[in-house]
Amino acid sequence: MKKILRLLLHLVLWGLLSAFGVYCWLFFPIISGYVAKKTCSEVFLAGRTPGDIRTREFSFPFSLVRFRVDSADSSVSASILGLARRKAIYRKGLGATLVSGVSEAELRSQRAGLARLPGYSQDTIDWPMGDRVADTPVAEVDLARLDSAVASAFADTVHHTDRGTRAVIVVYHGQIVAERYAPGFTARTPLLGWSMAKSITNAMIGVLVRQQGLDIRSPAPVAAWQADPRKAITWQQLMQMTSGLRFHWFPAGPSDLTNMLFKEKDMAGFAAGLPLQAPPGSRFLYSDGNANILCRLIRDRLGDSAYYRFPYEEIFYPAGMLHTTLEPDAAGNFVGCSYCYATARDWARFGLLYLNDGVAGGRRILPEGWVKWTVSPSGVHNNEDGNGEYGALWWVNAGREGHSDWRRFHRLPLDAYSCQGFDGQYIIVVPSKKLVVVRLSLEKGYLDPGNFAADVAAALK
After folding, report:
1. How far is residue 302's CA from residue 110's CA, in Å, rounded to a whole number?
2. What are the helix and strand counts (H, E) for the chain?
3. pLDDT the model gives residue 159
4. pLDDT tens-digit profile of 399-444?
5. Cα dist. 370→203, 208, 256, 281, 322 in Å?
6. Is 165 in contact with 184 (CB distance < 8 Å)?
7. Which of 22, 150, 428, 455 counts the highest number of beta carbons within 10 A?
């Protein structure tokens, strides 16, 4: 009997070790790929130092990764315990891209027609198109109360801890009434928005609707879907997260999300290859893959000669967002689910674009009525996230049938809406208050977005 028990124990231990080995084999390339890509963007795009990034960005298990920055060829190499070696390269105008499923030489040889920056200095132009901010106080603002609310985003005064906030901007009636940065970050530091990039994808599709008459109710022309039930999926269903496509969202291990972001050359192709989990239009299934599929469809519609200039010439630059970069994957498709860097002021300008019904600098960028449609509940209830509903690549505060009990943010008006990203990134727009609140962070603990924005709103008399 003892021999049998010992044998069973050995088998269990062997099984556990084997499972752990397989897990490491699958997860190590994700970990090192994340560090290589993130560091490459932070160094060459955001202008941060490797030492600062090493100290402030990577907790366990990412702290196990060793990386090397090569300034000569604008690249970052990373490995974990000498294994799972990954590399990311930076290309001016495109940002950082992880070398996945393609040789570095092939990736560097890709050509993209880039937009030219407008030939003026924002320092000499008034906000929001420029960076010259009026110093005249707004009469309806309780500045002491507002300062206290903003300070709470940076420090938990009860537990005396840093919340990880890097930047906060509050815009009221079009004017910046509060702006604060953590040490090491400034108004010129581009910051990663993670899933706020999805709302950038919404804007690109809105421009196509205005310029080309794109019918978002039409089936998405994905070649791989034409012989099966996926051919019924529409642009609108991809935007409203009702495509029915399976997508395993789990950032702390191997999943559809992490495999797509850190192993795949063609993220849109990977997402388009996923099977249906529910009939199109029948169920809310949050998926980063949907946004990447949409970015590939935009590329197919525009052609490469216009694709890489498109968000800059049609959205960013007309809105005054001159410090924004939307990064592509190794196949050349924008990673519209996650990879957009912008300064806090540029993120605030993006919020203002939607607050002002798609108009910026006196120019209509989005179609009339596009914002209203975007931030209307899709009608397919969000049973995954609990409260609130989803519009079209934006979160909607008004919940089921507009009932206040289903608000995403209970202390904010029903007309509020938001784009939100991993680790505490968000833009919250409250039209009835003429308010835009931006927070960018590397979350430590948790700062409830709705409560924070409500505390800010309470300072507006």
Report:
1. 17
2. 14, 18
3. 73
4. 665 455 578 899 999 999 999 999 999 999 999 999 999 999 999 8
5. 9, 11, 31, 20, 23
6. no
7. 428
